[in-house]
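RECORD CONTENTS
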Amino acid sequence: MKLPRDVSAGRLIRALETLGYQVIRQKGSHVRLKHDGPPAHMITVPRHNPLKAGTLHGILAEVAQIRSIPFSSITEMLPPDLLAPFEARHLAMVVVRKAA
C-alpha cells in the first residue's frame, strides 16, 4: 500500500497512541513514545508537518517489527482518518484523469 504524503506528526502520534504507545517526553521537535510491551519499546517521532514518506515508513516498519505485525496489516490497524485524506485525494485524481 502506498503511504500518504501529508501525515503530520500529531496525526501519527495519535495513531500510535491507539496502538498502545504513550508520549513520555518531548525535547525540541522530537517526541518520544513508549509501549510497555511485551516487548517494551520506545520510538522517536520528529514533530514535522508533514512527515517525509521515508520517515513515516521507517516509523511504521519499526513498530510493525517490534509488535510482530506484518507491515501490510499495520496500516489496517491505524485510525481511518490517518489514511482517509490521501485516499479521497487519490480517488479525485483518478476521476479527473478519466474525464480529461
